[in-house]
Design a protein that fits this description.
The chain has 274 residues and is an alpha/beta fold. It is 33% helix and 16% strand.
């Protein structure tokens, strides 16, 4: 009886589950990936950000500066050291794509080099894939393998299933055995000791199957040497670690239930925010 009354009482309590339709990948409370707006001729003489970046994801060349956001830890060392205020924290945290190359961005003194028409239609390519047809309709089961991760990703995966983020409500479920999984979720840089175990998990999975790289270490190695995947991931989710809300939005994108293309959104953000 007390339980029943409690349930009635709960009906009138405000919802705590995130309304994803109101979230756009920007967070005022997060550093996000660094944005660039500067003068390349000054940068060529300086290169301080390139030197300090712990994952070597910035490259200053004669005509452009390149950022590999798939390797970015969102640590802000580059924006802190820039005396010209040419790099700033964006708060942009939705860094994921079906294309690894999509996470690499080039800038010159006028801004981002790619124009909208040059941008890859990364999610469009994914739509041709067998695994996409499966997960789009049914959601998916995943088995996670911590391949040398510092467990930051694992903590956030755990949080993504609480009642604030409610991952299961979008049809994404954890399974204990790779034999029951559609997706192999890989975290960590794939250390030598985990290489064999990762391959065994992959070989145990029925087809269609796919790998998703979860976290900056899995996407690029991060601070470490990057190991070898059993197969090329179909989706890359950067962040060190990605936040639970980022994971939910990334999975919705992977399943084709959300219209999002990293470079298109980043370009729009830069046009509005700089
Ligand atoms: S630290 Fe600033 S000025 Fe120096 S290369 Fe980087 S962006 Fe350019
Ligand atoms: S890893 Fe840190 S220093 Fe390197 S680009 Fe990202 S925020 Fe900047």
């Amino acid at each position: 009886m007390i339980g029943f009354l409690q349930e009635i009482f709960n009906l009138f309590k405000p919802h705590v589950t995130l309304d994803l339709s109101k979230h756009n990948g920007l967070s005022a409370k997060a550093r996000g990936i660094p944005a660039y707006k500067g003068d390349i001729s000054i940068c060529v003489e300086c290169k301080s950000c390139e030197a300090i970046c712990p994952t070597h994801c910035i490259e200053v060349q004669s005509e452009k500066i390149s950022f590999d956001y798939g390797a970015c830890l969102q640590c802000s060392l580059c924006s802190d050291i820039c005396e010209n205020n040419s790099i700033f924290e964006s708060g942009f945290v939705d860094v994921y794509s079906a294309s690894r190359d999509d996470l690499k961005v080039n800038y010159n003194s006028s801004g981002i080099l790619e124009s909208s028409k040059d941008l890859p239609q990364a999610i469009g390519t994914l739509k041709e894939d067998t695994i996409y047809k499966l997960v789009h309709k049914n959601g998916f089961n995943f088995r996670e393998v911590c391949a040398g991760s510092n467990t930051g990703v694992e903590w956030e995966i755990g949080a993504s299933f609480n009642n604030v983020f409610d991952m299961e409500s979008i049809g994404v479920r954890v399974v204990a055995s790779p034999k029951h999984a559609d997706i192999l979720l890989v975290s960590g840089p794939i250390s030598e000791n985990m290489h064999h175990g990762l391959n065994v998990a992959w070989d145990s999975m029925a087809k269609p199957r796919a790998i998703i790289a979860m976290g900056t270490e899995a996407v690029s190695g991060g601070l470490w040497k990057h190991g070898i995947f059993p197969d090329t991931p179909k989706f890359w989710i950067a962040g060190d670690p990605p936040r639970p809300d980022v994971m939910v939005r990334a999975f919705l994108t992977f399943m084709g239930r959300r219209d999002f293309d990293f470079k298109v959104k980043w370009l729009e953000f830069l046009k509005q925010g700089t």
